[in-house]
Amino acid sequence: MTFDGNNNPWPRPGRLAALVLLLVGLVAMPRASIGEGTDRPNRVADDSPAPELIQDTVPSTAFDMVGDQITFTAVFSNSPAAIFQWQKISNGVAFDIAGATTTTLTLTNLQLQDTGSYRLKAVNATNREAVTYTSARPLVVDRIPAATNNIVMLIAAQTGLGDGTRFTPTWEVATNNSLIAGSLPKRVRGNFSLEAPGRQVKTLTDGNRGSLEMLHGPWGRTSSTNYVTCGNGNWAGLSVTYLLPGSKTGYDLTNITVYGGWGDINRSQQAYTVYYSTVAAPALLMRLASVGYDPVAPDNMQSVTRVTLRPAAGVLAKNVAAVKFDFTSPSSKNGYNGYSQIIVSGCGSASLPPPPAPDTNQILFGTRDGPVLDRLDDLGSWIWDSKTFDKQTCCFWKAFNIPFNKRVQNATLVMSVDNEYILYLDGQIIGRMDDWRQYWEYDVTLLMTPGRHILAVKAYNSSAQAGLIFGLHVDLEDGEAIEVQSDTSWKVAPEGARHWETRTTAPSTWRPATVVGELEQSPWAATPEVLKAGPPLQPVKLAFWQTSWFQMLFFILCGITLLTFFSMFAQLALHQKERWLLQRERARIAMDIHDDIGSRITQLVLNGEDVQAELPEDSKMRRQLGEIWDDARRVLSSIDEILWALNPRLDTLRDFADYICDYAHKFLEPSGIECVFEVDPNMQLTTADLPLRRSLLMAIKETLNNTVKHSGATELRLKIERQRQHLVVVVQDNGRGFDPASIKPGRNGLGNLARRMRELGGSCQITSEPGKGCRIEFSITLKRPRRFSWLRK
Fold this sequence. Notes:
Elements: E1 2-3, E2 9-10, H1 16-28, E3 53-58, E4 61-65, E5 70-76, E6 82-90, E7 93-96, E8 104-107, E9 116-124, E10 131-133, E11 137-142, E12 151-159, E13 166-167, E14 187-190, E15 214-215, E16 228-230, E17 237-243, E18 251-262, E19 270-278, E20 281-293, E21 303-311, E22 317-326, E23 337-348, E24 363-364, E25 382-384, E26 392-402, E27 408-418, E28 420-425, E29 428-433, E30 438-443, E31 451-461, E32 467-476, E33 481-485, E34 491-493, E35 511-512, E36 514-517, E37 530-533, H2 548-613, H3 620-646, H4 653-668, E38 674-679, H5 690-711, E39 715-723, E40 726-733, H6 750-759, E41 763-768, E42 774-781
Parallel strand pairs: 4-11, 30-37, 38-39
Antiparallel strand pairs: 1-2, 3-5, 4-12, 5-8, 6-7, 6-9, 9-10, 9-11, 12-21, 13-15, 14-17, 16-23, 17-22, 18-21, 18-22, 18-23, 19-20, 19-22, 20-24, 25-36, 26-31, 26-34, 27-30, 27-32, 28-29, 28-31, 32-33, 34-35, 39-40, 40-42, 41-42
């Protein structure tokens, strides 16, 4: 057998006859027995029926090599009883096979002359004319190919019945001597559960005989969970790496067998490359062989394959510590393949090998604590922007999450950029590189906390081709893993974007990255070669005000403060509105009293005076009417006082002082007491509310009344001033004075003065001595002026 660039077997010219036989069998195969031209059993004219065929012969087609064995089997009903005879059809002639008289035919130690078609003849045991034939099933036997690098590739293929039936190939699958039986891979790259829920990578080594059972599902897909989907297509299983523990000297590999297939021919190909490392150099991964086999099969039938690598002499490899299967190279014809079992056979090596010599075809990987296998398992594809040009800068962005209920055990990041890069993690620069011929590895375990993380790479291309390749592998304590590779899910931030390296989400305007090549693909096939360890990384120590809990608490307090402020602002606005409404109502009442009650009383006084003038001077009624009109005038005076108190336009202390001075002048004028006023000019804009003005007016009136009635003074000094937040009113006369201690409580209204001031939150101080006059000081605390007075408008 010869191989193409991917070790694909192609038939030599001498084997064309066998290939033609197989193709002819494929065309003629699906229908019923040879010689009858129908897929239903032949029946004789009498009532004794021919044996009933339950299941036609499987496999429907078979391809194998010299020295192997093949089994054909069919199923008939138990009634009527039948006599069975297997036949071989060669050159259109059927020959009985001696001793093959059961429903199963096993051909051992196959030879080239075994190529042909095989069918089972079933004869009614009592009516020899009642015969049923199964379909003729073609078998092609080929020579064992020549070894390539001491490796012989043995290939076998079978097809099923299709049409929704289940098919289990007739091979004997022995997994008890597999070095990886029941083992999970140390490294997994890609999604091995693609398309069918329940698929798991452990299927490849579970050793289950039934794992080869296959169902031809809709659109030819294999719905069974006994298979996994692998290949170079997006999201499929990309590679697995198995450790071979238990031996300090490693293992000598004797053969590697892989079983695969699919529900039709679209994914029945086997395409992968096998690597291995030795115990002497566990970080040195070496290529063993590449497999690229695409079987010939009908499109509507299950197609299964078996490929075995065995040594032409000796063993495949010695002192092996690990084996890797890379399903991305060579490429699959449809991007995906199906695999069911991997068997790695061998025995413990007798002794340790010498250290390996440098080899330019081998890739060197970095090591940390203990053996480290292929770090490139973590890498994705080479990506870049949709356009590439010299002196170009690309900003790559990717977000991922670590579950909050998981703890990170280990996290390793491997990457390279053609030509230079700056690497950010959560906005922090963790690495720089200006030599694209090397991979760089970073241990980011201490930086991987639960939650959302942002990866950002600022990449620069000096000239020619450009690319970024990246892989992050995070091992969790529960055995699960998180992988982030460079692929089209990365985003390219536009040039000039601000804070792109710290954004938690990518805008819809950011373009997806473009895959420009795969791992070890030209122009990066030979380099990078060396994996270097980046500098140790430690989490950034944040000040307490930079921690998330402090910032959260700060924002909560700010929110509470804002809510309190807006609540107080709303209350203030409401109070201002109420005050404005109250003042408007006061103005309305004052206007109504002035225009209605005041005018009516004034008209009444004028009419009364006219009537009084017509009465005689000595008339008793005239005197009584005079008293009534005097009372009416006093009522008008009181109304003026009420109007002054109600008028909101006269709420300032300056207006209050003017009114008090005017009132005192008019009140004292009949008594002959001279009045001197001292008014502070700086209080003219200070507001005085109604209760203050009313109570203080009543207190001053009481004081003036006492002065006129009891003091005998010739002069009174009235002083009104503002002292900071206090209004001070002083009434002082030069009368006879008195001893405050001799005044009984409740007399002369002095108690009323003190009580009024206390109600206003003020005080009243009386200072007097006999012969030295009297001084009364009223002090009241002023309310602070209200802000936001514009709200009243």
